[in-house]
């Protein structure tokens, strides 16, 4: 079972890129972020023609998340608990082939300090609280998405010019560390502990051309799913396409029995 996460940065303007990636890489499940489109503008027909069911929660011009799947998904949750007044479309949960898949778009938080950074930290606290109810679930769980956090200095090409960015703040990183401390496995870093891996390259200052990237898109596996981790990687070729998103899809391949019960992890595979 291959599960991917991809910040498309506008599903209407990047639809051709998305469809090409789906055709070439064939993920079983794809978590999408930053749809930047209302529910009525979601390209359901095009994705159905590509062989995917879809659940989505849109929002005009900002945010928006979706879960695409080869098998039909059962929606579990459409928002992150903890703040009934939060109307941002940032979280979606679905059951697919025995795996609970959570798709998230965590707030960016810039500029910091300020209200946007405060909102980011509040949202992160809500995520930590909800994740605590999922981590020891007997069923496999993956929380995938754009976390807008660079976990360590090893996850960025050069941290010096980003020190004041919300993605690198100590409070942001501490939240991510607390999340992992619950028992979640950071899949990419688990398989590649000593290799620089990036998922985001800014449009400015030739970041892509210089491979000046950041790792901010993560797939976290609970203990029921982590032993099934067989491979992981980043489809960097997507970032080099014309009119590309500034993110590239990250993915995991899971060796599961009947796509539900974990088995022993297979040999490691390069990204």
From TrEMBL:
PROSITE patterns in the cross-refs: AP_NUCLEASE_F1_4 (PS51435)
GO molecular function annotations of the record: double-stranded DNA 3'-5' DNA exonuclease activity; metal ion binding
Catalytic residue list: 105, 146 (proton donor/acceptor), 247 (proton acceptor)
Binding site for Mg(2+): 7, 34, 146, 148, 246-247
Feature type site, description Important for catalytic activity: 217
Keyword tags: Hydrolase, Magnesium, Manganese, Metal-binding
Gene Ontology terms: biological process: DNA repair
Cofactor note: Probably binds two magnesium or manganese ions per subunit.
The family this protein is said to belong to: Belongs to the DNA repair enzymes AP/ExoA family.
Name of this protein: Exodeoxyribonuclease III
Provenance organism: Ramlibacter humi
């Amino acid at each position: 079972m291959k599960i991917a996460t991809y910040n498309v940065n506008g599903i209407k303007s990047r639809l051709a890129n998305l469809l090409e990636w789906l055709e070439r890489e064939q993920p079983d499940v794809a978590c999408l972020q930053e749809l930047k489109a209302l529910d009525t503008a979601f390209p359901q027909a095009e994705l159905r023609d590509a062989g995917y069911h879809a659940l989505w929660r849109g929002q005009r011009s900002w945010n928006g998340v979706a879960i695409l799947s080869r098998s039909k998904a059962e929606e579990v949750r459409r928002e992150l608990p903890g703040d009934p007044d939060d109307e941002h479309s940032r979280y979606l949960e679905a059951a697919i082939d025995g795996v609970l898949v959570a798709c998230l778009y965590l707030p960016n938080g810039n500029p910091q300090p300020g209200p946007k950074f405060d909102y980011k930290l509040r949202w992160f606290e809500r995520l930590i609280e909800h994740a605590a109810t999922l981590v020891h679930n007997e069923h496999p769980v993956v929380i995938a998405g754009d976390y807008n956090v660079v976990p360590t200095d090893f996850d960025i090409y050069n941290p010096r010019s980003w020190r004041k960015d919300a993605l690198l703040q100590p409070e942001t990183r501490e939240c991510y560390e607390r999340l992992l401390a619950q028992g979640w496995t950071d899949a990419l870093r688990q398989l590649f502990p000593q290799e620089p891996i990036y998922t985001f390259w800014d449009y400015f200052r030739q970041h892509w051309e210089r491979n000046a990237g950041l790792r901010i898109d993560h797939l976290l596996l609970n203990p029921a799913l982590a032993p099934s981790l067989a491979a992981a990687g980043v489809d960097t070729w997507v970032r080099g396409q014309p009119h590309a998103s500034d993110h590239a899809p990250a993915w995991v391949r899971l060796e599961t029995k009947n796509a539900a019960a974990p088995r022993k992890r297979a040999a490691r595979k390069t990204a």
